[in-house]
Amino acid sequence: MNRSWLRLSVWAVILVILAACAGNTSTPAPTAAGQTAAASQPASVAPVTAPPASVSPGTNQPSSEATEPPPSEEATAEASGTPPPTPVIVAPESVAPGVKLVRWYCCLGTGDDPTQVKVEKKVIEDFNKAHSDIQIEGEFVLYAQAYDTLATEIAGGNPPDIIGPVGFGGANAFSGHWLDLQPLIDSTGFDTSQWESSAVDYFKVGNAQEGLPFAIYPSALFYQVGAFQEIGINEPPHKYGDQYVAIGPAAAALNVSEGTAVPWDYDTARIIAMLLTVDTNNNDATQSGFDPTNIAQYGFEPQRDDLRGLGAYWGAGSLVAPDGTAQIPPQWATAWKWYYNGMWTDHFIVDGPRFNDQVSWNPDGVPFCNGKVAMAENFLWSTYCMTSAGDNWNVAAVPAYNGTQTAAFNADTFRIWKDTANPDAAFTVLQYLLGPAAQALTTTYGAMPAKEDLRDAFFQQLEDSFGTLQNPTDWQVFLDGIDHADVPNFESPLPFNKSGENTYNESLSAINTYATRWDTTQGLDLDSQITQMQADLQAIWDK
Amino acid sequence: MKPLERREALWGFIFISPWIIGFVLFTMLPTLATLGLSFTNFSLATSAPLAFVGLKNYQDMLADPQVWASLEVTFTFAAFWLPMTLIVPFMVAVILNSPSLRGSSLFRILIFLPYVIPFVAGVLIWQNTLSPETGWLNEGLRALGWANPPDWLNDPTWIYPGLVLVGVWGIGGAVIINLAGLQNVPTELYDAAKIDGAGWWGQMRHVTLPLMSPVIFYSLTLGLVEVMQYFLVPFVLKNGTGEPGGSTYFFNLYIYKSFFTFQRMSYGATLAWMLFVITLVLTLALFASARRWVYYAGDRNS
Q1: Nearest-CA residue of chain A relative to B251?
Q2: How much is the ipTM here?
């Protein structure tokens, strides 16, 4: 032995520490320079290894509405020594001097699946052929990396011009950076009456018109028809305002006489869900012999991407009190306790360990799609995996709380970066994406078009994609759900802190920590947890 | 320096220059840039213009309870992690080096195999293996009669053993290093020890361990630096939430979140430099202690 080990140690330490401080292993991020280099190549589509469009790898979360930037595949790939996947760049073959280049950045929501990129590429090519003064360059980054990549481009002084499709949550992560479209609407005379005025107003922040309607995602209650038929109870009502007619075991469990109509609310839904939750010995969750460690089918699954969204089904609310301080809407607190008890006490909601089990319980990111969940509240985008849910499912109205039915709502659109060098050209491209290209894009995104005249074709295409179902899907439930949307939207902006920083991501990270804890830990005192969450949010906003 | 030596040195620098250029451009300059950033208000979460803020980020850091909580998590985990990553690879290497082990080549390959699997893929498989309800590990423990086996990923008591299990799975590289060290121990020393009446433990204590001390020092130093940067496994397993109960909110995770989730670039840079200073101090302390316990054959001081 000699001192070579010592020298090796010294060099290893120096290199590892320096690499850490430079962000090589712990703070990975793709370089804007690399993307620019790729962008300068002739029109081409680089190979991609994209996951299904609406599933965030590793998180089991539908991606159309981002919650927290998930573990970046690039972070993990880089740390493991595997090269990260390449963003897909769709660039014009050449850009003549004087021609304005508009960079379209995707995919903070849906849009990264190779089949979608193919359509997006065609949309770009069609525009570029038709315009000699403006050319679009598309940059399609996998959802799992899209936040980090965009943040890095912004940090590098290389932000794109148009970003989308992006939902409210994704947009709020960069709030304060979106262009007010109103002056461009006024100067060009762009007709916004093609949409309902309420839909246009949905994208107003104060007096600024930060977006225009493109795609909407109302929600509904998905359910397995066979599960209800098997135990001889009625299906949930499809029409908002209708009551639930209790027969058979449902009447007995609800303690009403056969055929009684009872309110379709979360109290009723709890009992029905427990009847539909069965263990491997075929006992349901209302029976004394029920074994919660060996559940074969769960009764209910909430939309759990974001605790705010979960709460919104119980009534619209905001975490921001009128005076700007943190608050927890009481209906959300009630919803969270119902959800927590549903997992750990009544056992009719998929618990966290099973939700995270990508083999047996949740391979698609939506447990309902594995056919082992009888009812699930979710957005329209979750239809992406319904082909796995069997051929006998349908949709119904969501239950009521305190007499009001609220179907959480979401919407995607394209937004223009505030500091774009070419606002006029970007607005021209925006009009194209919201207009002539909307049919192709909403179809490939599986998104309901905001324009009513495009909806029939959308639903027909959706219907066709499922093959033969035993019952025709009642799509009208989603359309009716629009009138029961949560206003204000659960993903409304959150305050800036005292240092003038947008706290949206940090606040959401805190909320998600509680969601993970509740999903995975039994025996918590939810009241104190909720109180602590409020205090945590206030502390973040007070920084 | 003679002309020939000068020429050789020049060619040496020419051949090594691609690495030096890459190192300067992609490691050294970004490192220095983060130092500069730590004195600014640079944040993607605000539209405020870039400004010099002096030591404000450092003051904020010292008053930030999450900093201390994350450091506590990191050091607590290190107390589990470091002994395991030293002892287990060493013991495995001792077994593999044993002349009485048959099929040692096969075992070497099997033990090294996980090391070549992409680590993230391995972690994702472990996520399912450690699943409390359906994971293979708990299925096995139940089959052995443990009715309520640990919730490895969701119980603050069991999360560190769970993480150590994942880490031990990938010890192939450390085993190879230890094995190389063991095979460098001169056999005549063992012969001499045997003549002096030393048994297995006597040989281990008086021959193997002293001569392996440089390798152990090397592994300890790298292990220390690696554990200070521990990030990937909890990041993937727990989705970067720090759960259960904040027990996976490692310091490096806080750095990552400050940069890329909270978009507070200058604060993230400040945290990164704090990590650098802590790691440097610990490493220097380790080097200072090396004189007392690391044996270098041929060293004038040994």
Answers
A1: A26
A2: 0.75
